[in-house]
Design a protein that fits this description.
Distance between the termini: 35 Å
CATH topology: Methane Monooxygenase Hydroxylase, Chain G, domain 1
Shape: elongated
Order of helices and strands: EEHHH
Amino acid sequence: MTTKQPSGPEAGAEVHANHGYITDKERYLARLKRIEGQARGIARMVDEEQYCIDILTQVSALTSALRGVALGLLDDHMKHCVVDAAQLGGDAADAKMKEASEAIARLVRS
């Protein structure tokens, strides 16, 4: 199914109506809920004035979990959204490739 996007990089171009992660939505939501719990746990550790290194260990685990979600979303984006746009070609493909490259750059910097 395709649809018209009124704004953004694909303005006026046909693009995939569903996001690439839609088939794994429940898995992503479950992972994000666990991450949310980890963040609350870290706040509790700070509130309880626990040992710095223990808190840093948990921050590292949280960072790794978020990076895993980001990489999964990026992979889904490349496999679905970018591939769909590439098949259409033209400005939509160029915009999706630029968007993906910028997302990768943000992940690498963080």
